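Q: Sulfur carrier protein CysO, please. Structure only.
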Amino acid sequence: MKVIIPTALRKHTGGQNHLSIAATTVQDALEQVVTAHPQLRSSLFDDRNQLVSYVNVFVNDRNIRDLENEATPLRETDEILLVPAIAGG
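A: Structure for Sulfur carrier protein CysO:
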């Protein structure tokens, strides 16, 4: 499956716009992402290893908060999109 890395987080992945991984749940996928790119951990997880509230995670255009959160099961053909909140006004 593919994890799409938004522009704001690519500085932590050496400029890669996506990562190819094999995972069975969103939690597993995110752990693989931060294991491969440890600099992403503070952008995705808090100090209790919980997904931060200002990053939305989508699986095939559906927010995981509307599914099973990090326990959302994944298929090989799924795409995960990380969407950090953007502040401004």
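A: Brief note, in case it's useful. Helices lie at 26-36, 41-44.
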